[in-house]
Amino acid sequence: MNAQAASQDPRPLTFFCAFALKQAVEDVILPAYRKAGGEPVEAVFEPTFRLLTRIESGARPDVMAGITGALAELLTADIVTEPKPVARTGVGVAVPLDAPVPDISSVEAFITAVTNARSVAYSRSGPSGIYFAGLLERLGIAELVTARATVIDSGPTAVALLDGRADLAIHQLSELILVPEATIVGPLPAAIQEYTDFSTALGTSVSRPAGAADLRDFLHGSEAKAAYAANGLEAN
């Protein structure tokens, strides 16, 4: 930890963080960062597109962790510095805790599981939901599945398993893990898997560069990498 990072400025560092990284960051990484002497942090956990809406409205984070492509656009707009890859997560499948675990080991098995489900829950606007909707079209089963799908506006799709709205949930693995009452079946078959890459960046208008740089460095450290791996993410 940079000895010069501490500041007399009473304001915490503002950290915008993609919701897919929430459990690793909130439960493990930020507490470890503070224990190591890092500055106070005010974290905002939302899907990247909602963090971008905040930025469009004038908000300026000191540090941001979000979908790599979105950060590249912010770099072009001179809102953040050069993004650095931090982790990625694939799309997975979950079922209710005591439900039979379907076979999703091949594309054919996955198609059978999805088409046999009473209702499949997926996100309306997140990257996994957008990908899944397109995947259904490519597999030729969109009409059958969407006719009885449970589309979630925000939050983990696996919550729909708990109240009986759906018996299969599709989401990023790092978000399925946010609902421990559900059983994660596993990732999509490799032939149809889709990864979402996340990066970190510093804000260009950061008031305390040393503190912000320390936080960003911690997000790439060994403790952070272990936390990502334990929460459905592959660390870079």
Question: Any chance you could write out the topology, listing elements then pairs?
Answer:
Blueprint: E1 13-18, H1 22-35, E2 41-46, H2 48-56, E3 63-67, H3 68-76, E4 84-96, H4 107-116, E5 120-123, H5 127-139, H6 142-146, E6 150-152, H7 159-162, E7 168-172, H8 173-176, E8 182-187, E9 195-202, H9 209-219, H10 222-229, E10 234-235
Helix pairs in contact: 1-10
CATH superfamily of the largest domain: Periplasmic binding protein-like II
Number of helices: 10
Radius of gyration (Å) = 19 Å
The CATH class of the largest domain is identified as: Alpha Beta
Order of helices and strands: EHEHEHEHEHHEHEHEEHHE
How many domains?
Answer: 2
Low-confidence stretches: 3-7
Question: Mean of residue pLDDT?
Answer: 94
Number of strands: 10
Distance between the termini: 21 Å
CATH architecture level-2 label of the largest domain: 3-Layer(aba) Sandwich
Give the proportion of residues in helices: 25-40%
- Strand-residue fraction? 15-25%
In CATH terms, what is the fold-level topology of the largest domain? D-Maltodextrin-Binding Protein, domain 2
Task: Give the biggest sheet.
Answer: 10 strands, mixed
- Estimate the global geometry from the Cα principal axes: elongated
Counting helices, strands and paired strands, the structural category is alpha/beta
Textual characterization of the structure:
With 236 residues, this protein is an alpha/beta fold. It has 2 domains: 13-88 and 196-235, D-Maltodextrin-Binding Protein, domain 2; 89-192, Periplasmic binding protein-like II (D-Maltodextrin-Binding Protein, domain 2, 3-Layer(aba) Sandwich). Helices cover 37% and strands 25% of the residues. The chain has 10 helices and 10 strands. It has helices at residues 22-35, 48-56, 68-76, 107-116, 127-139, 142-146, 159-162, 173-176, 209-219, 222-229, and strands spanning 13-18, 41-46, 63-67, 84-96, 120-123, 150-152, 168-172, 182-187, 195-202, 234-235. Strands 1, 2, 3, 4, 5, 6, 7, 8, 9 and 10 form a 10-stranded mixed beta sheet that branches. α1 (22-35) links the parallel β1 and β2. α1 runs antiparallel to α10. The longest helix has 14 residues, at 22-35. The chain is elongated, with a radius of gyration of 19 Å. Residues 3-7 have low confidence and may be disordered.
